Amino acid sequence: MTxxxxxxxxxxxxxxxxxRCKRCDNPIxxxxxxxxxxxxxxxxxxxxxxxxxxxxxxxxxxxGFAITSILSLIASGLIAFIGSFIGFFMFFIAAGIGGxxxxxxxxxxxxxxxxxxSKALFMTxxxxxxxxxxxxxxxxxxxxxxxxxxxxxxxxxIATPMVYSRTSGIQL
Length: 172
Prior knowledge:
Elements: E1 7-8, E2 16-17, E3 19-20, E4 27-28, E5 34-36, E6 39-41, H1 43-51, H2 58-86, H3 90-112, H4 119-142, H5 146-168
Antiparallel strand pairs: 1-2, 3-4, 5-6
Helix pairs in contact: 2-3, 2-4, 2-5, 3-5, 4-5
């Protein structure tokens, strides 16, 4: 007869298990197991695996936020200016400017941060787009220029996910 030894989770010494981490071979219980496409790994190996893909430096957040907010302020100001002359057709122009500006801002800021990556960096850049156009949007709304405010809202609805997708590498 073969005698098997009982394994206990490395993080929870009172839990019996027969599962091992694919990377470090430590015994892990189901609550410590992280499912990967090729098997289970422990939470420590999972954190180390995620850090390999987060390459952003602390100053990338400042650069990304500054560039996206300034360019978004300019683009939303352009939409407000054009909207004061055109009227209803401004909605279509706002959609076009939103797509083009979102792509251009995303590509420009990605070059500025040296193509470094982090999920928090992508969200910071998207927040920069929203916060950059917020002064124009609020000014238009409180002065009663609702067509312009709706145009800037359309711009935000299109440009924000465009910047996020361009910087994160999602192909649309």
